[in-house]
Amino acid sequence: MGWTKDMPPLLSALQDAGADALVVDWDDAQVDWRAFDLALLRSTWDASIRHPEFLAWSERVDGLTRLLNPLPVIRWNTDKHYLAALAEAGCRRSPRHSSNLTGCGAGDSGIFVAA
Predict the structure, then answer these.
(1) Residue 62's domain spans which residues?
(2) Looking at residue 63, what is its pLDDT?
(3) Domain co-membership, 40 together with 59
(4) Separation CA 74–CA 51 (nearest Å)
(5) Is pTM, for the whole model, over 0.85?
């Protein structure tokens, strides 16, 4: 399980707030998702290459616990066609990565993204 550098401070903040936070892999078959009050999806690096499996997992887990990332958002975000919709709304693409959007111009439809 790989962690991003912001995972330790996030866990610390959650614990300071009284949460019993646990980091697990989305595809770990041993996880009982009914045991969680909610699940926050983060850093699912392989979701794009295992898209159908990830969506099926999301739909199943959505019935077992509360996904903090709502299922419609998961569907929208994991289908990278949303990048074209953001570009049409005036978001600029990062010069280093053509698929990353860095910000939206004035008059957009309220979409804000950070690289």
Answers:
(1) 7-79
(2) 96
(3) yes
(4) 11
(5) no
